[in-house]
Amino acid sequence: MFLLWRNFWRTRAAAVKIPLSSRQASSQRSSRTGGCLTQSRRSSGSRYNVPPSAEFVARVSGIPTMAKLPYQETADGLDAAFVGVPIDTGTSNRPGARFGPRQIRVESALLRAYNSGTRAAPYECLMVADIGDINVNVYDLKDTCKRIREAYRKILATGCIPLTMGGDHTIAYPILQAVAEKYGPVGLVHVDAHADTSDVVLGEKIGHGTPFRRCVEEGLLDCQRVVQIGLRGSGYSADSYEWSRAQGFRVVQVEECWFKSLTPLMTEVRAQMGRGPVYLSFDIDALDPGFAPGTGTPEIAGLTPIQGVEIIRGCRGLNLVGCDLVEVSPPYDTTGNTALTGANLLFEMLCVLPKMKYY
Ligand SMILES: [Mn+2]
């Protein structure tokens, strides 16, 4: 009866343009349009954050957050959080990845709420938000690493799974320091054109070519449960991946991936990872630069976006404790398509997190 009465007055108010009280107006906006001026993100009545649908709210409207989710300051109360780490101080070649999180957020306005391929419904089972960017120090990479490590400690302490938008690949090192502090040595699915296992570059231990060497040295990885997929490009010696193999990593060079579905590979990877905690680190340069030119160290003959999606979907069932998508460098792809690809890959990551609901 109340509903009938309310609807009557709403209809009447709309028809004769009776000014509504601000409370009524806001309620009407929420229920009819999924949020309008205020971009009410919880308009569906769901207990979870649900991004406003582009069926009712123009995609191009609003302040760009990842997937048009609400922004909140901390990870409190969240099952998963999108977080940006805007640095490129660790890049060895073309810079620009500091603008990655920002452009990924802008392009992510195209994302919708359901995964049509896997029937995942992330916003019906997980509380997700965008918690902004780590306050990095663009003048000091070591200080930036410290800031990242401390920020991720706090994020992980809440029980939330971070979905990170890079930033160059240096960031995986301090993130994994915080992750291993909580979970112990983790398995790693590392998708990349490069192994990122150099020891020292130009005299420096910290950079985007060294994070996984540092992780091994500090015992952050369960080396028997590490796989590196998509590696390629010219090297400094004939066997560029000798060090990785010597640690116990499985190395899947790109030649093993050419012309194939990677779904069978991922069956093996899931067996390798077992039930323990796993971190997924996806460097956009794993994809062929024809698909993802907006990155700092592109290598030809890379993975297709289809293979990238197969890898991420193949992580379904793993005990994922964190994921990142790094090295999107907007200045090298002004179309935004690399960032859009990155946004979609991050959505795919969200859709394979533990406790996901699938229809
Ligand atoms: Mn990398």
Structure description:
The protein is α/β, with parallel strands linked by helices. It folds into two domains: 1-54, no CATH class; 66-350, 3-Layer(aba) Sandwich (Arginase, Chain A). Helices cover 31% and strands 15% of the residues. Strands 2-1-3-8-7-4-5-6 form an eight-stranded parallel β-sheet, sandwiched between helices. The longest helix is centred in the middle third of the chain and has 17 residues, at 141-157. The two termini are 34 Å apart. Mean pLDDT is 91; it is low at 1-39. Residues 169, 192, 194, 196, 283, 327 line the site of manganese (II) ion. InterPro entries: Agmatinase-rel, Ureohydrolase, Ureohydrolase_dom_sf, Ureohydrolase_Mn_BS. Its cofactor is Mn(2+). It comes from Cyprinodon variegatus (Sheepshead minnow). This is Agmatinase (putative).
What is the approximate shape? globular
Helix coverage percent of residues?
A: 25-40%
Instruction: List how many beta strands DSSP finds.
Output: 8
Give me the CATH fold name of the largest domain: Arginase, Chain A
CATH architecture descriptor text of the largest domain: 3-Layer(aba) Sandwich
Summed up, the helix count is 10
Strand order of the largest sheet: 2-1-3-8-7-4-5-6
**What would the average pLDDT be, to the nearest integer?**
91
User: Which small-molecule species are bound to the chains here?
Assistant: manganese (II) ion
Which CATH class of the largest domain? Answer: Alpha Beta
End-to-end distance: 34 Å
The biggest sheet amounts to: 8 strands, parallel
